[in-house]
Design a protein that fits this description.
The protein is an alpha/beta fold. The chain is about 35% helix and about 15% strand. Strands 5-4-3-6-7 form a 5-stranded parallel beta sheet, with helices on both faces. Strand 4, helix 4 and strand 5 form a beta-alpha-beta unit. It is globular.
Amino acid sequence: MSRQVLFPTMIPKPRNHDLQKIVESMNGAGARTLYEKLWDNHRVSDLADGEALIYIDRHLVHEVSSPQAFASLRASGRQLRRPLTHYAVADHAVPTRNREEAIEDPLARAQVAELERNVAEFDMPYAALQSADQGIVHVIGPESGFTLPGTTMVCGDSHTTTHGAFGALAFGIGASECGTVMATQCLRQKKARTMLVDLSGMPGVYVTAKDIALALIARIGTNGAAGYAVEYAGPAVSAMSMAERMTLCNLTIEAGSRIGLVAPDETTLAFVKGRRLAPKGAAWERAAAYWLDLATDDGARYDKRIKLDLGAIEPQVTWGTNPDQAVSIAQATPDPATISDKSLRAQAQSALEYMGLEPGKPIEGTTISHVFVGSCTNGRIEDLRAAAAVAKGRSVSPGVTAIVVPGSGATLIQAEAEGLDRIFLEAGFEWRKPGCSMCVAMNDDRLQSGDRCASTSNRNFEGRQGAGGRTHLMSPAMAAAAAVTGYLTDVRKLGQ
């Protein structure tokens, strides 16, 4: 089942308890950040212990985290409060090959079948597995226009931060919270502190949003943004495409923050306008005006500020088992003996042992066995174009298995219309159907113990891509360079 989803554009009306703040803002006082505006516009009531009841505009649903939520509705005799504010898709467990056949894995088959039964029973909009609407939940949301600026968005998936690229207050939630949203459209939340990440300077050739995010995480650590709502700003952010902004916000969770944000601007509006589920006509004009007014006010204060010079960043690659264990491709792995902090020294030693790497050795030249291009981080059409540009006229190195997995059916169709599939196939890559694929190893795309993968995904934890598998995170262009050379390679050396 797949059907047109139509729902009202969310343009909040001031509530009485907000009037003072609005008056102050109009008088030049009480300047607010983007996050504070989104919070104030969705706060239903204040609760004890610094919490508030927050209205939720949009809920993305997939097959892994939703069964408990539907079961809770069924047990309590409740229905969806607002069915058309939810959008479901199977993406984690689905195979990316032989999609026309029955799903071979019994667990995956059962998960998809249960989702289909649940959405049919509760009349929830659903992107069917065999439809062009299907894809990774964080890719189809923006592509369809389900993701809109100024909204609150949740999903039972940590990388819901992706949608913050549109100026949406978007964050991952647990399975029980999914049930709460289904029944009430509200959640208890504690207001976060605010962090500004100011990106300045011009990035060098082949330095992408993926590299910027990995460099930031390496600098502040995987808990460096915990408890903060992170807003990305500066000339470099303004110059980014929406795909780059989505990659940046997607990886914010890997720095410890549930919320990554970019203020809506003309680039945002150009992307959203005309999307299937976006507002039209006069509703569009009203919405666009509201969205542009969400930008952080002059004089607004952040609890923390970080400045990053993009001119100093080179293409990044992870060497360890956390996203913050990353270096530029021109650097070496760390030597734990030089790390004074006992805990960090032990972590580095353990990571190097798991990854099968020697301390203090160049990361470039490390032999790989697999390449994965895809995921909610880097499975969009722009990502596939970047990888194809490197692969064109070259061949996958002998002994390397390289797969390309579009993030959605729409991305697949566009890529094939542009001939990207032919470029990949002629180079020796496998061209697959949409899904989370090797990012999460909940399907049949997974590494075996000892395999080493150059991956465009978001996590390099032990066993993330398969038990005993070793993952190096990098950009699509860097992954393609590894595929055609057979080792971690500085893509800049291959020429443009």
